[in-house]
Write a structure and sequence with these properties.
Helices cover 43% and strands 28% of the residues. By secondary structure, it is an alpha+beta fold. Strand 4 (139-143) and strand 5 form a beta hairpin. The longest helix has 41 residues, at 2-42. The protein starts with a helix and ends with a helix.
Length: 190
């Protein structure tokens, strides 16, 4: 009787450990892919960063347009942005919908944004826009024209095989574009 109990206990622990490893593997792959995306932007390798975006998004905005938008945003001599301290929040368990896995991923990072080379009026407009986008308490003035932003973000990680993950940034103002490419079940979470 004692042997059966120990054997049963061992089997249950093994099953539980295997299930945890599977979840952790998916999370690790999502974190790895999202870190690669952020590091590509940080290194100003915009073509590499654009390759991390969910390909169906390019039916809404062309790949060339997206590369151009990222170049203007992250590789602009007048608007210097540095990404620091990438961290992860809750990563939802991937759901299989129409042959693809979808996982809502919460993450954040600190941005240092330097607009000091712009005129005062433009600096004020950018500061207002950043406070609207990231929240009043998440934008701090370091010195004139230089801000530190605590950016809390959400993305949808999408994969066919749970290994290679592509991303879409989830923001309410992107919803009209995302309606065309994301399943309703995922859209309802935005």
């Amino acid at each position: 009787m004692k042997n059966k109990f120990i054997t049963t206990l061992f089997v249950l622990i093994s099953i539980f450990s295997f299930a945890q490893a599977k979840v952790n593997f998916e999370e690790i792959q999502i974190k790895k892919s999202l870190t690669y995306f952020a590091n590509s932007i940080k290194a100003k390798k915009m073509n590499q960063a654009v390759d991390c975006i969910y390909p169906k998004y390019f039916t809404v905005i062309s790949k060339e347009q997206m590369t151009q938008i990222m170049e203007v945003t992250y590789n602009n001599p007048l608007l210097k942005i540095d990404i620091k301290d990438l961290n992860f929040g809750v990563i939802e368990k991937p759901e299989l919908i129409d042959g693809e896995y979808f996982s809502i991923t919460n993450y954040g990072f600190k941005l240092q944004c330097d607009v000091s080379s712009m005129n005062d009026e433009t600096q004020n407009k950018i500061e207002t826009a950043m406070k609207i986008k990231y929240g009043q308490g998440n934008v701090k003035l370091l010195k004139k024209g230089v801000y530190v932003i605590n950016a809390k973000m959400r993305a949808c990680a999408i994969s066919k095989d749970k290994k290679d993950w592509k991303f879409l940034i989830l923001e309410k103002n992107y919803k009209p574009q995302l309606v065309k490419i994301l399943p309703k079940k995922i859209l309802d979470k935005i």
